[in-house]
Amino acid sequence: MDALWLGLSNLLQPAVMLALGIGAIGGLMIGAIPGIGPAIAIAILLPATVFLDDLVSLVLLLGVYGSSMYGGAIPAILINTPGTPVNALTTYDGYAMTQRGEAGRGLSLAYSASFFGGSFSILVALSALILFGPYLRDLGALFGQRDIFMAALLGAVLLILAHRQTMVIAALLFGIGFMISLIGRQSLKRIDRYTFDFEYLYAGFNLIVVIVGIFAISQALYLLTGKDADPPEARMKGGLFRGLGELRKYKIVATISAAYGTVMGIIPGVGEFVAQFFSYSTARFLSKTPTQFGHGAPEGLIASETANNAVPAAAMIPLLALGVPGEALTAMMMVVFFDAGIKPGPDIFENSSDFLFSLFIALLIVNILVVITLMFCTKYIAKMVYIPNRFLGGLILMLSFVGVFSIRNSFADCIFASLFGFFGFVLRRLDWPLVPLVLGLVLGSIMVERLTAGASQITSAADLVNRPVSGLLAGVILVIILATITAGIFRRYRRL
159-197 pLDDT, tens per residue? Predict the structure, then answer.
């Protein structure tokens, strides 16, 4: 309990509270703008975190991460355009409510469901820390270098398999990211890897430069080369406090959806989309009026928004416990950990338990702050929907280059960010996923570092799996791959 109070006191510093408020409100406004989303916002903010205190930096990013999906529901419900990709399912029933004059009810239900889902997963995480904290500290003795390597490999496998329709492409992009992570001078033996005698590459690519290029600059180019949208203006009727009471009528659906989001968030590489799919399908199965789904069913809207907002807090668990990011946003936060000299993993429970409490309490405060803001300021935040795309593209491009140059005052950083931005733009045009590329870069560096550190204990491939944890993880990887192959063969056989 001492760690809990210390974590709370860490948050009461003026700079931390200011960063929390800026991140929460900023993420809310960014989520309401179609075409940006939290990944681009965090990518733009990353260069600034170099100059901020560790906790201030992480709280700022957590604010954006935890609030953006609230804002993303606004355009999804009002103009049938999701503010963030994970709000796509919200359009099914949310926009139908707007069409029949219930925009206020739809927004109120979305806010209430989002708050319930986010709070549910945060309280689960905090309860686990309080009840099992002493036992979690013992994880450090169980996890060696090879075990962390296998955990990262499991995350990579789950990430690739999560892209069912583009599995080969996801594997290819993950491999490219992995190759990029190898570039640089190996510190122990001073071996140059893919540097081609270019001094800039001796230290490898700066993660912030790559992320800003892949996410922010590529999106800026995408917006600049597209057309400005002119969405119709929707009128909001009905009080926004109504959903807080109405959610009680659907408490079973909300609880099941929050549980799905929490569980799916913990599993690396799965995330919001799978959680939403299971939640929406379950809600439809349990509903007395399943035909209403897709036509303004409140259960559908609740299932979608509860599930996707339960994921962020849960996704922090594999990042903090194993040092394995599950998706792009937690991978970006991993960069802040790296810069601060903090290594997420089992040892963090022993050395920085108060820091963990600070992060989860910060997420809880974000949820409270955001839902209060939305109840009173939705009509003003909704105006963000109508900002022209090309103006946004120019603004993102300017902020990206200013941020990248400020890291090391290097024009070379700007050039490489541009190259990665153009590559990301091509991927967007091809409709290929960006996340495997970034996670390949982050997980690749983790895998290489852990494998190198444990090299003295490895004389054959069998040594990778001769520990209890690494052997168990290898078994899980094998079972998942065999199950996926079997399911694919079965589906193909059934079509014949």
Answer: 787 677 788 898 999 899 888 888 877 665 667 777 777
The contacts of residue 374 (CB under 8 Å, 6+ apart) are 28, 70, 107, 111, 240, 381
DSSP letter at 232 equals P
Q: 200-234: buried (b, 16+ CB within 10 Å) or exposed (e) per residue?
A: ebeebbbbbbbbbbbbbbbbbbbbbeeeeeeeeeb
Q: 64 pLDDT exceeds 60?
A: yes
Q: What are phi and psi of 418, to 5 degrees?
A: -65, -45
**CB-based contacts of 177: which residues, under 8 Å, 6+ apart?**
436, 437, 438, 439, 440, 441, 442, 444
Map tokens 């594997």 to a residue: 171
Q: Pick the closest to residue 32 from 3, 69, 63 (CA basis).
A: 69
pLDDT tens digits for range 425-476: 999 888 888 878 887 887 787 788 777 777 677 777 677 777 777 888 888 8
Quick check: 163 and 170 in contact, CB under 8 A? yes
Residues 6+ apart with CB under 8 A from 274: 162, 264
Distance CA 452, CA 469 (A): 19
The answer to whether residues 310 and 261 touch, using CB atoms and an 8 Å cutoff, is yes
Alpha carbon of 172 to those of 70, 149, 150, 177: distances in Å?
33, 20, 20, 9
Rounded CA-CA distance 134/350 in Å is 8
Using DSSP's 3-state secondary structure scheme, residue 137 falls into coil
Q: How far apart are CA 27 and CA 44, in angstroms?
A: 12
Cβ-based neighbour number of residue 77 at 10 Å: 33
φ, ψ for residue 184 (rounded to 5)?
135, 180
Which tokens in the block code for residue 387? 């900002």
Residue type, 94: G
d(CA 455, CA 192): 19
* Cβ pair 107, 115 in contact under 8 A: no
Give dist(CA 458, CA 464) in Å, integer.
7
* pLDDT attached to residue 172: 92
Please return the burial class of 187, using the count of CB atoms within 10 Å of its CB with bins 0-12, 13-18 and 19+.
exposed
3-state helix, strand, coil in the chain (%, to 5): 80, 0, 20
